[in-house]
Amino acid sequence: MKNPLFFKLPILLLALLASMQNAYAYDFEVNGIYYTVNRTMATVTYKTTDYNTYSGDVVIPESVNHNGATYAVTAIDAEAFRSSTGLTSVSIPSTVTEIGMMAFYECDHLSRVDISSIEAWCKISFNYPECYSDDYSPLFSNPLYYARHLFLNGVEVTDLIIPNTIVTLNNYVFCNCEGLSSVTIPQSVRIINGNAFMDCKRLANVDIAPSVTVIGSQAFYGCTDLSSITVPRSVNIIESEAFNCCPGLTEIIVENGNAYYDSRANCNAIIKTATNMLIAGCQNTAIPNTVTAISGDAFKGCNTLKSIDIPHSVISITGNPFEDCSSLESITVAENNPVYDSRDNCNAIIETAADKLIAGCKNTIIPHSVVSIGDRAFYSCQELKSIDIPNSVISIGKFAFAECTGLTHAIIPNSVETPVQYSGTGWFMGCTNLSHVTIGSSITQMGIIFHRCPNITSVTCLATTPPITEDTWTVWDSGLPEQPSNFDLEVYGQATLFVPVTSLEDYKTAKYWKQFSLIRPIGDTDGNGLLGIADVTELVDLLLTSQGNEIHFGASDVNGDGLVNIIDVTELIDTLLAQ
Fold first, then answer.
1. What pLDDT is stored for residue 72 in this prediction?
2. CATH of the domain at 174
3. In this predicted structure, what is the pLDDT of residue 15?
């Protein structure tokens, strides 16, 4: 009988060949550039899967000769320049028509892209697999994502005139091109695809010809210097977030005669005529009283918007239309609105029937009649300095206070229950200035509530049973080890965890909770790790020297409401008597 290894040898050899092919993916190299070939065409690629193949100024030729054959250079392979941190500029010939997924990923020092033809550049496809879900992959395909400056025959492109041979502006074609100050789109163009001019921050003037029928998703997203936009009468499709995060916008006009959209009553907004839905607004928008619906991204990123009035006619609001409107300070709903209200001058939008707050701002005071806070209700409200969540609230939606970087403390009251899909909560994710957090007694499971909050120094958990924690929070391609998702790793080392004295030992042995370097009982005001009469004395002294109800956290805030008063003294005495 033959040795089993005999039968395995062909398989082992195939595996070895496959690994060698993966490590060295090129067919040949000329002048420091690596290529694969397909008949008469060549594709620029990487040397090995360690990447970091290129550095300095790379000039890709229109054609390359090898072994007596000439190949036209028509594509840049997926990941071809990946991790080439020494790459400073790249010259792309007019023969290139395709750039693969993540071709320039992590090219952090790339500062310019040189081309010889705007027409050829407009015809390049920035590709990524349809099954690939990461939104950033096509960005990394376009070298402008890092370079930010496009040069035509050695001169930086600032006033861009699209050639009249172009019919479609491809996805991401000029994204992040910060040198652009104006764009003229000619009569030949029918479609402006998604993200075409995304994050062209200095783009101030756009002239769209009355031939364009489609403005794609996020086509002008993040064009912070754009001050006005006129939508031609020819446009019949405007996709989501086309003009979001354009805080400089003061004027939005839809040309008369457009059969699909309008800007009635000089409202400085885009309204779907057939449905009376406002889909895009700006800092000067006045919502007409004929509008019946507001889309969920209508004002997203309009951080110059100061106030908004919701008329009685609006009966449908999708999500929070005011995400990332950090300067918004006044929200008023008309008193006779049948669906929404802003009761008690709360500066928020509340679904009346459900007592659900769906949109807030930096001056919001949550009424005690509110029972739930909607998904992303305060998302990226960066000027929100503090928020009092009343005990009437029993549920908080996903990412409700995420990216509120002005918040320094967060108190989840005892009334708030763990959501069914707790792992995706992200309530305070990205609140980078949070230093003190209190977790109410009804929380039984922890998700990513405080992920990316690295400056937390004090955590109070009022639950007598340690909440169940998530195992890991993985970051795509981060290279980092798996880690607990409840708090950032540094928080476990720098923060003090305060817990009920009866549960002290449980927390010291509970998964992830035990990683806190210092765990103390609530009420341990003298810091010796025990509860006694000395703690009551310390607490009374603190109360006597405090000016009214000052904000306190940790050991002295016995009942977890963020204040030190006689109630805390009473609760501490009751705890001591119960021992």
1. 97
2. 3.80.10.10
3. 42
Distance CA 427, CA 423 (A): 11
Query: CA quadruple 340, 237, 324, 139: dihedral positive or negative?
Result: positive
Q: Which of 568, 403, 405, 400 is nearest to 498 (CA)?
A: 568
pLDDT tens per residue, range 468-496: 876 554 444 444 445 556 788 899 999 99
- The tens digit of pLDDT for each residue in 433-463 reads 999 999 999 999 887 889 899 999 999 999 9
**DSSP state, 480?**
P
Same domain, 177 and 295: yes
- Residue 214 scores a pLDDT above 50: yes
In terms of domains, do 184 and 300 share one?
Answer: yes
80, with CB counted inside 10 A (0-12, 13-18, 19+), is: buried
Same domain? For 191 and 286 the reply is yes
Which range of residues forms the domain containing residue 528? 524-579
Nearest alpha-carbon partner for 50 in 9, 69, 11, 22: 22
> Which of 305, 330, 364 is at the close of a domain?
305
In this structure, the answer to whether residues 226 and 267 fall within a common structural domain is yes
Residues 251 and 196 in one domain: yes
Task: Say if residue 119 is in the same domain as residue 252.
Answer: no
Q: Same structural domain for residues 50 and 120? A: yes
Q: Domain for residue 221, yes or no?
A: yes
In the chain, the percentage of residues whose pLDDT exceeds 90 is 74
Indicate the SS3 state at residue 524.
Answer: coil
Find out whether 160 and 180 touch, Cβ atoms under 8 Å: yes
Count of domains for the chain: 3
Query: Three-state SS for 436?
Result: strand
Q: Using CA atoms, how far apart are residues 283 and 312, in angstroms rounded to an integer?
A: 21
Q: Is the pLDDT of residue 29 over 60?
A: yes
The position carrying tokens 């009346």 is: 352
Q: Is residue 504 part of a domain?
A: no
Q: Do the beta carbons of residue 265 and residue 210 sit within 8 Å?
A: no
Residue 532, phi then psi, degrees to nearest 5: -160, -175
**How many Cβ atoms sit within 10 Å of the Cβ of residue 568?**
24
Neighbours of 487 (CB within 10 A): 28
Instruction: Provide the β-strand partners of residue 229.
Output: 252
- ∠ CA 107-182-168, nearest 5°, is 75
Across the chain, what does the average pLDDT equal?
88
* Strand 316-317 with 293-294, pairing: parallel
Does a structural domain hold residue 167? yes
3-state SS record for 61-121: CCEEEECCEEEEEEEECCCCCCCCCEEEEEECCCCCCEECCCCCCCCCCCCEEEECCHHHH
Other residues' Cβ atoms within 10 Å of the Cβ of residue 563:
18
Q: What is the CATH number of the domain that holds 535?
A: 1.10.1330
Exposure string for 264-301, b = 16+ CB within 10 A, e = fewer: eeebbbbbbeeebbbbbbbbebebbeebebbbbbbbbb
Would you say residue 393 lies in a domain?
no
Judge if 58 and 107 occupy the same domain: yes
- Taking the C-alpha atoms of residue 212 and residue 438, their distance in angstroms, rounded to an integer, is 53
Q: Specify the 3-state DSSP secondary structure of 450.
A: coil
